[in-house]
Structure prediction request, 286 residues.
Amino acid sequence: MATIKQIRRRIRSVKNTQQITKAMEMVAAAKLRRSQDRVTSARPYAARIGAMLENLAAAAGDVSHPLFEVRPVRRRALVVIASDKGLCGSFNMNVIRAAERIMEEGERSSWDLVPVGRRVNQYFGKRGWAFGYTLPELGDQVDAARAHALAQELVAMQLRGQVDRVDILFTRFVSTMSRRVESVPLLPVAAGHIDGGAVKEYIYEPSAEAIFRTLLPRYVENRILQVMAESLASEHSARMVSMGAATNNARDVISNLTLVANKIRQAAITREISEIVGGADGQKRS
Prediction:
């Protein structure tokens, strides 16, 4: 049985851990507020640029662009976005398991895996997956430079025929306590269809081809920025919840250990009193 000195040492150790988890919970909460603001402000912009692109594509008629081209899918790219760090519950493993389920649909050779974040890079790298492209680190906040580099590479992969379709797997932020792993198509860009009579007339200057050549890569980059923001907000919320639960568990452990220490101390006091009483009785009889 542990001594009271050992129990008190364990209580101090758990208290130190509790201070760390509490600090991490507060840091994650601060990062979550910034990330959540970015997600809520980016969603309307993403919706409007998507609607504008659909209107332009419908009005342009027969104007074509390679990013609109739908080809028979022989090779697919899957962009998997997770986190750089752990201590966020099942956040990373939920994404990884979803990616594995998706890639079960075909042979390994038919996939170009594009991991974003240290955890998915390590996981799939150890399992021998070849990467079509990779972002080893995602960071704590949305980085436009990383999103731009990823968008450029994915567009280039589609244009040169390396892949016929690109999907993004990420965690959508729903609320502080709720997240949802989703897979969304990125390339080819869906041109969309607008019912007759609703098509707006546009004047394209210098030409529809030039406008789509400029607009489509920016649209892809915006989609990537949006899903990165969603994933980061989800990561921070998962870490905040996980560290909050760890802090509460540490409090329960401290309470239980304190109770055990008190029982051990009480037993020692009772034993000493019994020994004193027993000694006094012996002296009286003698």
Observations:
- The CA atoms of residues 11 and 257 lie 7 Å apart.
- Residues 29-240 form a domain with the Pyruvate Kinase; Chain: A, domain 1 fold (CATH 3.40.1380.10).
